[in-house]
Amino acid sequence: MLIMALVFCIALLGLSLTQTHLLSVLLCLEMMMVALYLGLGLMSLSGLNYSLMVALVLLTFSACEASSGLALLVLISRSHGSDLLKSFNLS
Amino acid sequence: MYHLILGYVGLVLSVCICYQKNVWRIAQLGSLLMIVPVLNLLNLNMFISGISGALTSDFMSVALVILSVWLLPLMLIASQQHMAKDTGLYQRIFIICQVILMSALVLAFLASHLLLFYIAFESTLLPTLMLITRWGAQKERYQAGTYFMFYTMVGSLPLLICLVGQYKMMGSLSLDLILGGMYKGEYFTNLWWLGCILAFLVKLPLYGGHLWLPKAHVEAPIAGSMVLAGVLLKLGGYGLMRISYAWGASALLSGEVVFALALWGMVVMGAICLRQTDLKSLIAYSSVGHMALVVGGIMTGTTWGYNGAMILMIAHGLVSSCLFSLANYWYERSHSRNLLGSRGMIILFPLMGAGWFIASLMNLALPPTINLFGELVAMVAVYNWSMFSVIFMGVGAVLTAAYSLYMFGMSQWGEVLENYKNLHVMTSREYLLLMMHLVPAAYLIFNLGLMF
Amino acid sequence: MSPYISPLFGLAMGSSVLLISSSTHWVFVWLGLELGTLAFIPMLAWWHSSLEVEATVKYFIIQAMAAAVFFFGGLVMTSTEYISGLSQFVGNFGEVLIMFSIIMKLGLVPFHYWVVDVVQGLNYLPGMVLLTWQKVPGLMVLVQLVSMQNGLILLIFGALSAFWGGLGGLGQTQMRKLLAFSSIAHLGWLVSGCVVGTMLGSMYFILYVVLSIPVFVFLYILNNTHLNQVRASLVSNPVAAMVVGVGFLSLAGLPPFMGFFGKWLVLTWLLNNFLVGGAVALVVGALVSLFYYLRVSYMCMVILGPQQIMVSLSWRKGFMGSLLGGLVVLNLLGLLLVGGISSLSK
């Protein structure tokens, strides 16, 4: 459980501090989701029996999120020419 | 008393649907007719002359309601020339704006629940702001409007918090219940009291919170100036009177600070007026000086103080409105408010010179006028509070006389400038307006009981 | 994208709210939040312009991150305290994480920077949905979360948010950024209202929606994004300009309009709970934000350039005229509501 929390926090930090590519932001997001999946699996070991079902729901939704993230990646590289976060307008 | 509000609603509707050529006639006649139902409220034998629903008219509000209802046709008559070049739609919006302003004022004066009073008090802001910023003359009017808005809002939001807190503590804000200081208690601190009256002190305005007033007066069109000087300042006086009558507390430390500022303002405003070159700005500063005595009278918390303040407010409402409309006659012809250039008006417009003469004398409180009576009564009350205040009041009265004569002399006597020699003659509409101001102001000395 | 898909997304957004409001377990709340976000993202990037896509990406990253933090908080909460509902706050670390993720989703003050950026990139109508409908799920969770322990911090965030929403808009000339700052300020009032009474929060939210929708719609009709463009609209479309001006004054909370009603209610409840400091802070924030509301309404209703010619508008006829009347009456209805509610409270 502690490992899962550590992984999650590292991924969160990575997401917050990434300054180069949108793709790596999305990867960090996936890593967070995987950490949560891991946590659910560990919870089923400790006796919370419905957590495996929740894990399926989590997987489904993280897949949806990842696919819409990739779609946005495609959109942004078509409109901005690259997926560099530097080309964003941060005001 | 809801029929007053309904009457104004009807006036708005008839202004909306009537033909363009009749707009001004209908608005002026309709608003003049409103004086008939409002005179019904005069019931001199009773403490409270009428209660209906959330509205109550008592000895404090009747005179001010009649004054404000009386001023609406005068405002409409005065601004007919000013609005002549605007399109029909905007003329209608202008009239509707003024009618809404006036109904909010009547609601504020008649409200018996303090929160209803607060809402009506705040509702007068927006139409006035529109009058100043939409129909003013120069581009500085936006600054003036922002000043007006922010001074008033900064003053009045503490009032809202205090009123709501008061409601929590007492369970009622109805004036019928708290009248007569029934709940005069010990848990009102100075800060609470100051929060309650700050809105009115800014509105009056007291010296220190007065900077918005000359700006607003200079930039506002004639109707805005008239309603500001005539009624809106009195709204502050009325609120101050209402709250200090209900909750006392003029002996608190914050009350004495207010006193000191009022006395100081009386002298300083007189001195400032002597150095003004702008006609409207001079009249505006003179209202600040007059209102200082009103604050003084109310803060004594005595019957004499209230009486004097009320009479002074009515007198000042009529006279300063008259002075503004006189200044506007000159402004509409010469397109200048400069006192140095406006020489020899009495040669150009002799009858208007008579109007200037009477209005200036009333402004400086010459003996047979109600201005003098009000000042005397208020001064006696303030003198009773502290003997040393007579120094400030005396200097203030002398300076008032000085600047009134300065204004009259500068504008009426002397050589007419070359470029002002072919101005329009005065119209009978303008003489009518002059008479409608001066006749009540002169007549009221015969029946002072009407005001209190 | 085929326009026939859009009802599907609308259905998903609606069902997300239903899901959140009817669930007792935090997993389903999370589901609802995710569903709402994912269904809304295609609507944001509808026109595929580069600014819109960029705003969508920012929105997506923030929302996905907040959702992940929410799930993490839920996991922590369940594995340590074995509770699954949100309404019993015991001061667990997971619950604090959930609260912060919701604040991030809503855009309350410590996490408010994304709101301005995203709204600036969007068109008016998606922006309107973002600032009104998309707040419903977050607010529903927040209402469940509010309790004695975290009330104070929510109140502090609310007051800061009201103040910051005023301060940020002072120098703005972009209409959409102004609306975003106004939404941050109103969110501050809203959250403060939620702290002292759930019904109060929802009532303030309804008021905010009713007041801001005419502003958004008529700014969309006027097609103005900059304050200077708005200035010209009094000539081109006086009715819409007046509705926007009155709407902004109403958002400012000036008394004859309905915006004042909500502010009054919130102040009353705060003072009923002896939270004088919160009330004063909110009022200061409202004063600061009054400045830019006032400036916009000057631009809409008052300022006429020297070379602008007034068109003559037919007064009695016209669809737009009746719409104006309806909307102004809607704003003025505040007074009647005030009367009704105050008579109820006696």
Structural features, described:
The complex is a heterotrimer of chains A (91), B (452) and C (346). Chain A is 77% helix and 0% strand. Chain A is built from three helices and no strands. Chain A has helices at 2-17, 22-45, 51-80. Chain A is elongated, with a radius of gyration of 16 Å. Chain B has one domain. In chain B, strands 1-2 form a two-stranded antiparallel ribbon. With 346 residues, chain C is mostly helical. Chain C folds into two domains: 1-145, no CATH class; 147-346, no CATH class. The radius of gyration of chain C is 21 Å and the shape is globular. At the A-C interface, helix 1, helix 2 and helix 3 of A face helix 2, helix 3 and helix 5 of C.
Instruction: Tell me about the largest β-sheet of chain A.
Output: none
Within the CATH hierarchy, at the fold level, what is the topology of chain A?
Answer: Helix Hairpins
Distance between the termini of chain B: 20 Å
Largest sheet of chain B: 2 strands, antiparallel
How many beta-strand elements of chain A?
Answer: 0
Number of domains of chain A: 1
CATH class descriptor of chain A: Mainly Alpha
Mean pLDDT of chain A: 87
Measured by DSSP, the beta-strand proportion of chain A falls in under 5%
Overall geometric form of chain A? elongated
Which bin fits the share of residues in helices of chain A? over 70%
**Strand order, largest beta sheet of chain B:** 1-2
How is the topology of this model organized?
The complex is a heterotrimer of chains A (91), B (452) and C (346).
Chain A: H1 2-17, H2 22-45, H3 51-80
Helix pairs in contact in A: 1-2, 2-3
Chain B: H1 2-17, H2 23-33, H3 35-39, E1 48-52, E2 55-58, H4 61-78, H5 88-110, H6 114-123, H7 125-135, H8 141-170, H9 175-178, H10 190-203, H11 212-219, H12 222-247, H13 253-274, H14 279-300, H15 303-334, H16 345-348, H17 350-363, H18 370-385, H19 389-412, H20 428-443
Antiparallel strand pairs in B: 1-2
Chain C: H1 6-22, H2 26-44, H3 50-81, H4 93-106, H5 113-121, H6 124-131, H7 135-145, H8 148-169, H9 175-196, H10 198-222, H11 227-236, H12 238-252, H13 258-272, H14 276-302, H15 319-345
Helix pairs in contact in C: 1-2, 1-7, 2-3, 3-4, 3-5, 4-7, 5-9, 6-10, 8-9, 8-14, 9-10, 9-13, 9-14, 10-12, 10-13, 11-12, 11-14, 12-14, 12-15, 13-15
